[in-house]
Fold these 2 entries.
Entry 1:
Amino acid sequence: MHFSSIVSTLALAAGAAAHGAVTSYQIGSTTYPGYTGYSPSTSPPTIQRQWPDYNPILTVTDAKMRCNGGTSAALNATVAAGSTVTAFWSQWTHQQGPVMVWMYKCAGAFSSCDGSGKSWFKIDQMGLTAPPLTSTNWGTAQVEATLKWTSTVPKSLAPGNYLIRHELLALHQANTPQFYPECAQIVVAGSGTAQPSGSYLASIPAYAAQSDPGVTIDIYSSTATTYTPPGPAVWTG
């Protein structure tokens, strides 16, 4: 067995019981609970679309990629354009991989907003900030250290109903990416008129190919010194 395979196998075994998901949000001074662990049905009403478990998604084309299987939520939260949304994790142990934060404008009510079509766009991301690939110079390492991630909703974004999607992509197992996405329902308020278009937009699932070097990579054997997160560039307004 190759050394990289041994290392990645050990990493997978060590982290098997330590996957994670967004379990709450802070918007302004208000904290909104999310789902927890393997008993989401016992959680209080939330802005988060219900997800079933902590298990990773292994292919970028899996239907669960959109919102980890979540299709509805009882509540929504108002967010002023230009303000921040902070997502919190109750646990996270993987230190190699990007953090990506996406949004999707609903055409109408949340009850009919399923996230389909090429309308997802990124508002934030952090991949590798300095080599090597095996270091902890990654966005997910910051989540591991703080169990939270704060992003700013673009100030020029047009108001309306949106999904916000936090995605952690764990790359600690060679050539076996692990995706962890969750979605919440937010109402953007403000006087902005901007909307992303063209190359900033993507469909989820399948926002990238499984063979994309940002998706399938062996961080132990690769000689790359830079990394580009998969999917479109971040739209800042």
Entry 2:
Amino acid sequence: MFKKDIAPGAKSKVKSSVQRAIRSKITETYPLLAPHIDEIIPKKSQLDLLKLPDRVTLYALDTSPLFFQHMDDPITPHLRTVHQFPHAFPRIRIDRGAIRFVLSGATLMAPGLTSAGGRLPSGKTDSTDDKNNDEGMDKGKDEEDDDSRYEGRDLEEGEVVVVEAEGKEEACMIGQLRVGTKEIKEKKKGVVIDSGHYLGDGLWKIELD
């Protein structure tokens, strides 16, 4: 969706009532962002709405892109927002071999996640996982156990997920799952994300000055 460079279209100011609704939708969709919402979108700030190609709406604060939405798909954080709050989103990990394909805009396929270097949610939903998730919010990324970040429930088709990469610190992609993680683990083949936002794409390079 964002393979080509993007020239932002018309900009408009978001009404205060709509901005409140956007804040609420963000915290509803990404509960772990709730403690940071005033930092991301301060109550007295002014969000801008920009129209992008392919019926994508971008929400920005001053010159900083924050979230985007394609038609009626879930509101999705820009990777710069993900990099600020990396522990606030569901995560999966691709192996080293898949990195160059993801960063060239290729469809993310299941084998890059089910190999030895890939990671998917464990499917565990007990209190221990909740405790690990809470602790992860307090730890720096370097301190967090490499595998504990992928503990937790299986993710469902349609959920927005952050894609991390083996051996890399920052997420390289974000997008909607085309199949749930339980099915990915069972079948080990097929499309996982086909239209994500990735490092170096047009949305990453967009200039809002």
